[in-house]
Amino acid sequence: TFYLPAYPADLNPSSLQPACTARDRLQKWQPAPHATHDPHSSPTTFQESDLNRIKDVIAHTCAESTKESYGSSLLIFHVFCDAKSIPDHDHAPANSELISMFISSLAGQYSGSTIANYLQGVRMWHIMHRLDWSHNNTEIEALLKAAVTLAPVSSKHKPCGPYTIAVLSLMHDNLNLTDLARAAVFACLTMTFWCTAHMGEFTVPCLDSFDSSLHVKPSNVTHETD
């Protein structure tokens, strides 16, 4: 069984995978030049900037959170390949056997959805760098189905209990609403509750992920009277 921790100290990442944020790995981590595959081959001569434009546009198919998730997928994939002493030029285009080995190494250690997401990250990396992605789909589907069955108990969590008016009242009575931060927390909670919305629609994962062009700001709040 192959366990995938963070990049092991005894493995040296290739120069093709420079240090960068997870969200940038799809574009900045390059596949090795392949003797029989030139991703830049074209009957017409294009400038490098024209070819990079293709990757830039494809990158916009993914939300920032998805790029980060796929970036983590690439890390897991390359750690797997390096631990198996697979040469850089065989990492991509990845053949069916390598992809099946990758999935089977993860089965039993992660949830089925996590493994499927890791696979999608590797696939998107191939697409972005215009590499072939042609595999034994029947085998891959069987492996992904088996991964769901083999998922460890620790990867499965019971659904959280619902928020109720009683819970909101309890929080109201125990929060100091004269404190702006706590008032904001309670406002977010009540808005989410009464709008029957997902918490992710009213919050951001971390402060660094706040985007003023996407997320609500105090200046967006208006008061209107019918």
UniProtKB/TrEMBL annotation:
SUPFAM superfamilies: lambda integrase-like, N-terminal domain. It comes from Paxillus rubicundulus Ve08.2h10. Keywords: DNA-binding. It comes from the Eukaryota. This is Unplaced genomic scaffold scaffold_585, whole genome shotgun sequence. InterPro entries: Integrase_recombinase_N. GO terms for molecular function: DNA binding.
